[in-house]
UniProtKB/TrEMBL annotation:
TM stretches of this protein: 19-36, 48-71, 91-108, 176-194, 206-224, 230-255
Pfam families: LGT (PF01790)
Recorded coiled-coil stretches: none
Main location: membrane
Family note: Belongs to the Lgt family.
Membrane topology field: Multi-pass membrane protein
The protein, known as: Phosphatidylglycerol--prolipoprotein diacylglyceryl transferase
Enzyme class, UniProt record, top EC level: transferase
GO molecular function, one term: phosphatidylglycerol-prolipoprotein diacylglyceryl transferase activity
Pathway annotation from the record: Protein modification; lipoprotein biosynthesis (diacylglyceryl transfer)
Enzyme Commission code: 2.5.1.145
Annotated organism of origin: Vagococcus proximus
Length: 272
């Protein structure tokens, strides 16, 4: 038995519109709005952000779903009709980020835009969208952790509606969706603050800090979850990807920091 929250927001012409989809879209809209505002400050055009989203958004969703399906192939091979049922959840954020990054690379090259600057503009919006999106997991009663006691949850000073909905199949669980949502929101405000420091970060470093912050938190939170994707039955895929991305981001940041040709992230090129 699941918690008391109803995952269906309303019915439209007989079609169930789920909170999961509404919340995910809300996060995406906020991410685009934040990016368009920052684009004007760094000398990019709002149209560049909007045009990218026409390509990046659908392909990122495909990437997120493909990543999930690949690592759950045994199930989907037996239930091929479920492969496109994304309304029921099953979008792996790492798959979406990787697909979006590839699309962004080719998009920025075609527009003669700095790839790293474009990433830096997008990064804060992406992490806040991830923070919001985890509440879609809450509404779907997914992405929760191992069994805990109700008293443990009460000691976290959580509101009752969260505690009550962490009782799944008769047992209370870690609200790992909330842990990650909170971690990402803290990261969002840190990125907003740090990018205001003039001549402090070089282009690409906002993105590297985002990747390191997210990967660090995800590694530990993933270890609590009960629905992890596994490789060879012994390695949690998201933990492995977290370690690799953290190391790559740190290495690139240190390397580019030493390159005099890499410009600083500047907010003085755009509209005042």
């Amino acid at each position: 038995m699941l918690g008391t929250v109803n995952g269906v927001a309303f019915n439209l012409f007989g079609l169930e519109v789920k909170w999961y989809g509404i919340i995910i879209v809300t996060g995406m809209v906020l991410a685009v709005w934040l990016a368009t505002r920052e684009a004007k400050r760094v000398g990019l055009r709002e149209d560049d952000i909007i045009d990218f989203m026409f390509w990046g958004l659908p392909l990122s969703i495909i990437g997120a779903r493909l990543y999930y399906v690949i690592f759950e192939w045994e199930y989907y091979a037996a239930n091929p009709g479920e492969i496109l049922a994304i309304r029921n959840g099953g979008l792996a954020i790492y798959g979406g980020l990787l697909a979006g990054g590839v699309v962004m690379y080719f998009f920025t090259r075609s527009r003669y835009i700095s790839f790293w600057k474009f990433l830096d503009v997008a990064a804060p919006g992406v992490i806040v969208a991830q923070s919001i999106g985890r509440w879609g997991n809450f509404m779907n009663h997914e992405a929760y952790g191992g069994v805990v006691s109700r008293s443990f949850l009460e000691k976290l000073h959580l509101p009752n509606f969260i505690i009550d909905n962490m009782k799944i199949d008769g047992e209370y669980h870690h609200p790992t969706f909330l842990y990650e949502s909170s971690w990402n929101m803290i990261g969002f405000f840190l990125l907003l603050w740090i990018r205001t420091k003039k001549n402090f970060l070089k282009e690409g470093e906002i993105t590297f800090l985002y990747v390191m912050w997210y990967s660090f938190g995800r590694f530990f939170i993933e270890g609590m979850r009960t629905d992890s994707l596994w490789a060879f039955g012994v390695i949690r895929i998201s933990q492995l990807v977290s370690v690799v991305l953290f190391a790559v981001a740190l290495g690139l940041m240190l390397y580019r920091r030493r390159q005099e040709s890499v410009p600083f992230y500047s907010r003085s090129e755009g509209i005042k």
